[in-house]
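the two lines:
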Amino acid sequence: MDENRARRAVLDALGTVAPEADLGYLEPDADVADELDLDSIDFLNVVTVLSRTIGTDIPEHDYPKLSTLDGLVAYVVAVGDAHLTEPGA
Amino acid sequence: MNIAEEAVDRWVERGRGDRVALRCIDRAGRCDAVTYRQLMEDTNRFANVLRAHGVEAGDRVFLLLDRGRALCTSALGTWKHRSVLGPLFPDFGPDPVRERISTGNGRVLVTTRELYRRRVAPVRDSLPGLELILLVGEAADVRRSGEPIPGAVDLAEALAAADPAYAIGPTDPEDLATLHFTSGTTGRPKAAMHVHGAVTAHRSSGQIALGLGPGAIFWCTADPGWVTGTTYGIISPLANGATVVVDQGAFDVERWYSILEREHVSVWYTTPTALRMLHQAGREGLGDHDLAALRLVASVGEPLDADTVRWTQEAWGTPAHDGWWQTETGGIMIANVAGEPVIPGSIGRPLPGVVATVLARDDRADADGAPLVLDGHVVEVTDPDVEGHLALRPGFPSMFRGYLDEERRYRACFVDGWYVTGDLVRRDAQGAYWFVGRADDVIKTSGHLVGPFEVEAALRSHPAVADAAVVGVPHPVAGTVIKAYVALRPGHSPSEELRRDLRGFARSRLGPAIAPRSFEFVDELPKTSSGKTIRRVLRLHALQGADAPLVTSGAAS
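prediction for all of em together
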């Protein structure tokens, strides 16, 4: 998935869970859970929304890669690509 | 009898001052070991800081802090000074924070600059009694640029300048030590009053239910600001001479397994939500972590399903021990205790000295399922497996002594000499108890007890909302999450945009933990003829799914 689309998907997922947040001010390398006041269930909801967008489950052991905005975008770029280029996908 | 003396100073007096009391792990994974002697000096200094600022015995000191050394120092130092501790949950938004500090007459608040900015600054004007703010952390420097904080003092600086010696004043076992806030179906949050003498029960319940003692390495992951984080996160393990692991980080599968392994945790007290997330991560999450040191896993906050208990036995070789207690009881009352076989899905049996029973419900339509009273007496259920109210004989040391300034609500908890807990249970033929549900409309989410009133009041303050009601709906990980039903004012119509706006509004007022996770728009809420919302109808609707019709008239029949 190209980076712009991935970023939009990530911001959309974050905005669904924390609609009050001003995502324009989100530092790319800051901890999103801290910055946006997400608890563990909020974070799971972000993961669920993103899984739907990229069309594949996100395994628990990948969660540490998803702690920052940059991490989330890079993950969606990489996994989105891998999934979408699978034969028959 | 002072909690801090029992938990800290006595170990130093007995020549055990060089043992490690706390192992504080920061977010980066660095560990800071604090001996009992250091903890004694830290807490002496804290008590001296309070004294230097004119804070007196009986004054209310609130904590709004994440887990860490500062939290332990502040709590124990407050008890040393015989001030009254009011722990707050750092995930609470400004509304619940204001409500609790105001109800408890808070004079002092210990927090960080960041938590102050988010949780306190928006409501500081309505807290005139709050005089002193002790700021924790590197960013605490009160001379720093940015919004000035009235009454702020840099805690680290003040501690460094304070005398490390402090003589604890005479403390009666009945002296008020702690205010723990809890909620009912209606009305504002109540502050349950707990006393210094509770420490004897905290010590013994830790020994019996959790197997705590000197040499134990104990990790309690419960959130600070609720009763577990205080009773078992601080008091009970220290009063038993154990080493307490204090992790500042949030839940993460790899982080948690690494801590269990690296710290050789022998007794672990955690929540069903965390256990279910570890269950989901499965064997793969566990990897090749060595949990050989782990003797006992116990679960707290809400009932733990039998499936997860069995999984912990399979995966870790030791089953999670469930139990039952609540804010008002101050400590564990019923449990699958250390050293006894675990009954998966059951909350276990009453601890020695705890007298529990099941009271029959009044099934008449207007009785609302309250305990049945015949000729002034309750009716105890003697047949096995019959649902009823869980009730306890009061009089044990950790029992609350009242709700602050709410004598009527306190008295309403007692019927015919029994304390009625508000939870429904059944007792099997072997005497083990099984949790059934709440007798009222209070919601248990991620182990936290949330009163619908507080959430609904915040929602009603949104300009588009005419009426609102919240209920708990089952969730595979959190156990229950909060769902809101909202009726709109004329001129407003349901839309995705309004849904997001309401959620954002609720999050910024209430904080992430108690803001509803989902919203449903309805024309009107189901009401009794006297105008009371019938949340039972909403709970049923939430279970049936969004497409089910919501019957709002004649629902009371």
